[in-house]
Amino acid sequence: MLNMLTLLQGMSTGDGLAIGLAIVGGGLSVLGAGIGIGLIGGRMTEAMARQPEEAQTIQTAAIVLAVFIEGVALFGLVIAGFIRG
Fold first, then answer.
1. Which domains does the chain have, with CATH numbers?
2. Residues 6+ apart with CB under 8 A from 76
3. What span, in angstroms and rounded, lies between the C-alpha atoms of 23 and 8?
4. Rounded to a whole number, what is the largest CA-CA distance in the chain?
5. Which residues of 57-75 are buried (b: 16+ CB within 10 A; e: fewer)?
6. Count of beta carbons in the 10 Å neighbourhood of residue 22
7. Is 34 in contact with 51 (CB distance < 8 Å)?
């Protein structure tokens, strides 16, 4: 984790803006993934309630979509880490 001392030290050398924006970018990446996976879960539950006979297919598709969203979030965190470091 990046602590306040490291952030202040980066600001004194002029890297503070890049570090701060990298932290914000990583946070937005995770926030977006959380919202997306939550929406998928809600829609999956609604679809399974409407069509219980298709529950297995709906669940499989929802899990695949959640994995893709999580992969994009992880990619965003890695990029933010490279910008910061």
1. 18-83 (1.20.20.10)
2. 25, 26, 28, 29, 30
3. 14
4. 62
5. ebeeebeebbeebeeebee
6. 20
7. no
In the block, residue with structure tokens 């050398």: 13
Express each pLDDT in 22-43 by its tens digit: 888 888 989 999 999 999 999 9
Name, in order, each residue with C-beta under 8 angstroms of 13's C-beta and a sequence gap of 6 or more.
none
pTM for the model stands at 0.71
Tokens representing residue 52 in the block: 């219980």
Tell me how far apart the alpha carbons of residues 29 and 37 are, in angstroms, rounded to a whole number.
Answer: 12
